[in-house]
Structures are given as C-alpha cells and as structure tokens.
Amino acid sequence: MNIKQKEFIIKQMSILKEEVDKKNEIYKHGVDLSNYENGYTEVALNTISEFSGIKREIIEWWLYESSSKIVLLDNKEYDLTEVEDFINFELDNKE
After folding, report:
1. Which listed residue, of 28, 63, 78, 83, carries a Cα 20 to 30 Å from 20's Cα?
2. What pTM was computed for the model?
3. Which of 46, 43, 22 shows the shortest CA–CA distance to 33?
4. What is the pLDDT of residues 26-39, one digit of tens each?
5. Which residues, including other chains, have CB under 8 Å from residue 67's CB and lie 6 or more apart?
6. What is the Cα–Cα distance from 25 to 60, expressed in whole angstroms?
C-alpha cells in the first residue's frame, strides 16, 4: 500500500469517526439514531475495508465499541485510540 492510499484510508476513517462521535453526542441528549441508516456510512465502511484489507468487523469494533482500545500483542501494549494508530497497527499486523 502506498502513502497516498494510506492517507486516504486514514482520512475516510477520521470522517467516519466524527460521524459516530456526533451520533453519540446526540444520543446523550435523548435522541436515538442507532437505527438511522446512513448511505455514507455503509459506503465508507466498505471502501475502507476493501482498500485497506482490514476486516469490516474490526473496523466496526473500533468505531462502535466503547471498550478500551488498548491491544496486547507479543507482550506489548498498543494504544489504538487514535485513527492513525489503529490503521497503522492493523496494516502492520494483518493476518
């Protein structure tokens, strides 16, 4: 994967993360958008997965789960809280 492709994936993932964060903020004010279907979200998830080779399920875990984004691999902890760290980790450690 070249640098431009990687930058594209990081940019798309960042935009998608902003959308998820907005939905979560709106939810705090009593509006549930969990069943709101957004065509952009579906296209972005598929595009990121296809371009990067990262499984969609892993991308969705990172976006939607509120659990800690600390991963232990080979006795080393990786903080995947930031988009770029998550993408770099996944690209460097693909199965």
Report:
1. 78
2. 0.82
3. 22
4. 888 988 877 776 77
5. none
6. 18
